[in-house]
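Entry 14. Structure prediction run on the chain below.
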Amino acid sequence: MTFEYYSSNSKPSGVSYGKWTVLWWKWALSSPSNRNPVVDQSGEFASENQPKNMWFLTGMFTEEDEKKRFPSRKCTVPLGIPILTPVLNSLADPLENLHLKTDQDILEHIEKQANTITKRIFTINGESISPQRVRSDPRIFDVYIHPDFDKSHKGGYTRAASDGYWVCLKPLPQGEYDIQFEGSCEYGRLNSGAKYHIEIV
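Output returned:
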């Protein structure tokens, strides 16, 4: 079976690819750590606050972990909607990086950060798909970060920019699928990834 996916200049469900990446960040940052799909190891909270016209998968916080203990998750995905996966994505905001004083500072920081991404691998049922680099649309956006999202953020409202490598699958037929993805940035120092067993129903 050949799996179809969206190009970086397309509009899945009528929304630009870059806008979907912004919506992904808002989704990922808005939940507390005890219910956050990024922290979840099993897929128990995979359906938390999912949008209607897209299904978001997620890796994990990037770590300096050569053993790469990526989460292994199971979830059910509704039939007829695309699936968006960040193979390795980055966010720049002044809450985490206090030296970012202006929008230009944010943009320059995220560009440099994304340029250090050296590994980007995505497979579905063993078939490889090349991730595409997608910048946020708009380039600078407002976002709320939950105070209990993670240890490195204070939480609150801020401005941010994002960049990274993504795969957006077109809607899959009913059935079961195994998805694996892995990426690294800062020239291999930080790693992220996950394994998913999904069922389309």
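The mean pLDDT is 93.
Filed with the rest of this week's runs.
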